[in-house]
Amino acid sequence: MNKIVEVLPDKTALIERSLQVCLDQIHSCIEQRSLCTIALSGGSTPKPLYEAIATQNLPWDKIHIFWGDERYVPPDHPDSNQRMARSAWLDKVNIPAANIHPMPTDEADPAVAADRHEQHIKEFFQVQPGEFPAIDLILLGMGDDGHTASLFPHTEALNVRDRLITVGNKDGQPRITFTAPLINQARCVIFVVAGASKRPALAQVFATTSDDQSYPSRLIQPQGELWWLLDEAAGLELKS
Ligand code: 6PG
Hints:
three-stranded antiparallel β-sheet; 20% strand; 240 residues; binds 6-phosphogluconic acid; alpha/beta; Rossmann fold; globular
């Protein structure tokens, strides 16, 4: 794993730098493999990043979009990560509909939806049994509690090692989420984190010793590149 930590002076600079790192990764993937698979994070931080990516002239037919997690709500619900990404980015660019791979949330049982999406991912990446596909670029956020995707502290999802997709749980609310092993198979993981409220959890995530169950972002140790892009409000103590 190659870990890069950058602390930017403010949110605007953080988004600008995040855009540049994402574009570098996208261009590199397409040059090497004529394809780029990207998994998006949800929440509020990445919205301006998605709006910025939407202004770029990219070979959208070579780009496939997934999500690292999804709230278990309909795609038109205000909390939907899919809805946010479509309105901020995907609806503004000429990306084929077939290149967008949302997590299903239309099954009565979220576990059935997770199984369905796992099957879809396996077919898309032509995954052999027991293998984890290498997604080119996974964007992640981090909650004030140190969660990432929908891998929340002290939940069963943290310990799922034999699945690509599982059911997360936020205060009893179901989520669909990538598992830690799937995220860690990525060629590149980029955390984009902003705000002073993230500072205490960041200190624990970056600590030499702490508890992965309490701070699940510690579980993210990808075989490829790991970028932590932070604004100063979040990453002041981590500035080298
Ligand atoms: C979600 C995200 C989640 C998010 C963090 C940070 O579905 O909410 O995928 O992991 O990245 O909660 O959220 P903010 O960027 O809004 O602080």
